[in-house]
Amino acid sequence: MNTHRRRVLPAFIILTIFAIALGAPAPAQPQNAATSFNGASQLAIPFNQNWLFGGRFTEAALAPGFNDSSFGRVTLPHCVTRLSWQDWDAAKWQQVWIYRKHFTLPDAFKNQRVFIHFEGVMVGVTPVINGRRLPGHLGGYLPARYELTDFLAEGENVLAVEVDSRWSNTPPEGDTKKRTASIDYLEPGGIHRQAWLEAVPKVYISNVFAKPANVLDAAARRVDVICTLDAATGGNQGVITTELRDGARVVAKAARDIVVEKQGVSEHRLALAGLDGVRLWSPESPKLYNVVTTLKLAGQPAHEYTTRIGFREARFETDGFYLNGKRLVIFGLNRHELFPYAGMAMPPRVMRRDAEIIKRDLNCNFVRCSHYPQSDAFLDACDELGLLVWEEAPGWQYIGDDTWKKHFVRDVRDMIIRDRNRPSIVIWGTRANESRNDVELYKQTRDLAKLLDDTRPSSGSMDNRRNWERDWHEDVFAYDDYHAEKPGSVGIRPPVAGYSYFLSEAVGQFNYAAGKGFDSYYRRVGDIDKQQNQALFHAQAHGKAAGMANMGGVVAWCAFDYGSLINAYKNLKTPGVVDTFRIPKLGAAFYQSQCDASERVVIIPAFYWDFGPNTPRGPGKHAAIFSNCDRLEVYINNEKRATLEPDMKNYPNLKHAPFFVDLGLDGGAAVGKPELKIEGYIDGKLALTRQFSSDASQDKFIMAADDAEIAGDGSDATRVMFEVVDKYGAPRAFATGEVTFEIAGPGTLVGDNPFPLEPTGGVGAVWLRSAQGGSGQITLTARHSRLGPRQVRITVAPMK
Hints:
Elements: H1 11-22, E1 43-46, E2 51-56, E3 72-74, E4 96-104, E5 113-118, E6 124-129, E7 132-133, E8 137-138, E9 144-147, E10 156-164, E11 195-200, E12 203-213, E13 222-231, E14 236-246, E15 249-260, E16 264-272, E17 289-297, E18 300-309, E19 314-317, E20 320-323, E21 326-327, E22 330-335, H2 348-361, E23 366-369, H3 376-385, E24 388-392, H4 402-419, E25 425-429, H5 439-452, E26 458-459, E27 461-462, H6 468-471, E28 477-481, E29 501-506, H7 528-546, E30 553-556, E31 562-563, E32 572-573, H8 589-593, E33 603-605, E34 620-627, E35 631-636, E36 639-644, E37 659-663, E38 675-682, E39 685-693, E40 700-705, E41 709-711, E42 717-725, E43 738-744, E44 747-750, E45 755-756, E46 763-770, E47 776-784, E48 788-797
Parallel strand pairs: 22-23, 22-30, 23-24, 24-25, 25-26, 27-28, 28-29, 41-48
Antiparallel strand pairs: 1-11, 2-3, 2-4, 4-10, 5-9, 5-11, 6-7, 6-8, 6-10, 12-13, 13-16, 14-15, 14-17, 17-18, 19-20, 20-21, 31-32, 33-34, 34-37, 35-36, 35-38, 38-39, 40-42, 42-46, 43-45, 43-47, 44-46, 47-48
């Protein structure tokens, strides 16, 4: 969590709490268990284990003495219904549900103020602590936090949580005519993010906004620190000290005396100066610092609050986007936080992996969090990887009644307060995606954004430019530009003159048409021509935009396939360049090639080398190959077919233009089973050779895990990807068969078992989740019905 770092209790104390709650013996304390934390008095324990899920809500289950022995034990994050990877049915989660948790406060929490913090609950949450009902919170994408202090018992406590996953009058929902089909993404219900139990003193630091100023002027550079105190009592005198730290080294320090005269919230300002030696944050070097703020009362440390920042200047000008004084072309993708089998209920490791794919595998410098604030773990990874972020309040075209608008304004406020210390975020989305204008509402959200954070511009994507002078009032003009998608003619309108301008969406959506069959649009088993053209469309959009002097860049649609009821095949929408399993499609080839050869050499065809019933004549006469090499040599059956150079004539503004080759092999089965070889040369030297076989009789079944080790907390998980490939390891188009799984060790399988490959085109994935309190090794054996077994092993580390 970036908002502030909590003192997290050692595993021994956490397990002891769980054991007491379950009536089980407490575990033996390890000799190296930590017992103190630098004198700071704030504590937090992950509150994700040993929840009891009772299914459909019943009022009786809110009572402390309710018999919940029939409830199932679950860990957070949690989805209320079992999901596959497609065919999601919203009716299965749009109910009211009940969770319960028994817990006993550790001694360290005594005489403290105690809060429960839910990072995200879909869609509404109402906690009941020891029979005392607390106010409800509607909205699934931002935290809900409650003080429990006055309602806690000395021994066992019972927290009952009513989760309302029905369609609600809160952003992005509210359209009662279309309901679930009124927004372009599904929202599976449950406590879909993590929870924390927190303890703080009577007077504590509730928030710190550490705002770098004059970043590019080394002599004048500073950090303006706004420290918010929350006091349960008045009449307190003390000192606030704040430090900028680079690891253990203190870079700068400031302090001020304070008086907390009365109960409530107060703000106190400090400034850190003498920062001429700090390093700037950038996509190439995402340097992070800690701002550690300490409250002392009566001469004693009372509370400590840590937040991370980075020093960077981000500006949107009429001639483009500037980072740290240098023009940077925005090169990005939109991201939905939806996964197979779990909806949005994936643990931090899995969320972080999405950021790694976008930055490291797809070579993007920018991601748009479409169309809601995303998890702390994902945004933490963006800060650490150097991935620039557009974050926007929940919304999708619809604007509701006055209650809806109040929730939208609240969401803008909570989003900015939660994330304004993050260097990765360079723009706030303060209007609902693609919505009509509402002058009063959007003036309120813009003004609120400026009040809470005057360092970033506001925006909101526009899907037409007919009345933009009347309807647009943000700082940056962000436009969703969809034109006809066919080779050579992806259209990009020129920027609106005199305004900061970039594309918030492009490619991926325009060709959907009623009655045409959505299975043909970029599905791995859909129309092969459309699959092969997807990467070209993205290349054309980025290339054309890069050639426009006043264009900030393109954030294309989109990174990953996602659950939807709009223009979707079996409720899975497939505009992603990567599929729902996080496995690249042909459309990813363009992005994968846009890296320096010094980092890795890339040769990726935007076609399958296959001569089956779906591709009888091969890739065609204008087949695209994406590479960062200078020259390619292409061979069929070891006979040279062509020498290729990148098509700089038609793609002059790309870092690495595509190559094109005639691979139209007429005759269907008469062509036999040819092999393809591509050699890549850099500076006249052979840098990489890739080979491809069309002989399916030599295909292989492969499997690999993202991580060698996960934590034994019952929540942590890692993806295991599997696919059918040719003898050289290249994907086999339209491969079939069935995969069955056997698992041994301290973990569970999250996924379909058995898994038929025909609907996915020969690829798929499951996730392995650790068992709570487990340690040792998980062994997963996957057996393909024709190609035999494969096995992976994952170490489960004891909770720390």
